[in-house]
Design goal:
This protein has 165 residues and is an alpha+beta fold. The protein contains six helices and five strands. The longest helix is centred in the N-terminal third of the chain and has 15 residues. The protein has one domain: Gcn5-related N-acetyltransferase (GNAT) (Aminopeptidase), CATH 3.40.630.30. Strand 3 and strand 4 form a beta hairpin. Strands 1-2-3-4-5 form a five-stranded mixed sheet, sandwiched between helices.
Length: 165
């Protein structure tokens, strides 16, 4: 019997305006990981919108590719501060497909985001986490990598033309 070794390639890719298909695949991964496919895939933005988003300096998307398939990623925003000439990076979404969890992918994504933050002159990366049993792995990861602050989060509804319809 001949043994064959299969090497699995794992790559973290910083998405650019040329990576619209990868951004769409990342959105699908987020939807599946969060159990909210409709939000992430139900009404996708146009390719032009995604190209502009990926071309700007306020949005950062990192995708983890394993054998060419998106298995995780980060969507983050760069915030320009007003009180000092500095920036902060806010991790809006971080997810890894269920089949690939516990392989260090989320930690690797955050480490790569730290490199991006240094290049962009950011002084801190921050992230929110929900509470509850399903959130415990995320909270453990963030506790390992950062300093916990207990804060309150409030969503303030915005009413506009769409609500009137």
């Amino acid at each position: 019997m001949q043994l064959q070794e299969w090497f699995v390639s794992l790559v973290i890719h910083h998405l650019t305006p040329d990576d619209v298909p990868l951004m769409e695949a990342l959105s699908t991964t987020f939807g599946e990981a969060f159990g909210d496919v409709d939000t992430y895939a139900g009404s996708r933005p146009s390719a032009d919108y995604l190209r502009r988003l990926l071309d700007g300096d306020s949005f950062i998307a990192l995708a983890t590719l394993k054998n060419g398939n998106v298995v995780g990623g980060i969507a983050a925003y760069q915030l320009q501060k007003f009180e000092q000439e500095r920036r902060e990076i806010y991790i809006y979404d971080l997810a890894v497909s269920a089949a690939y969890r516990r392989e260090g992918i989320a930690t690797s994504l955050i480490e790569e985001l730290k490199k991006v933050a240094v290049v962009r002159g950011a002084h801190v990366i921050f992230v929110q986490a929900n509470t509850g049993d399903e959130a415990e792995p995320a909270i453990a990861l963030y506790t390992k990598l950062g300093v916990r602050e207990d804060v309150l989060h409030f969503d303030i509804a915005v009413r506009g033309r769409l609500d009137a319809a």
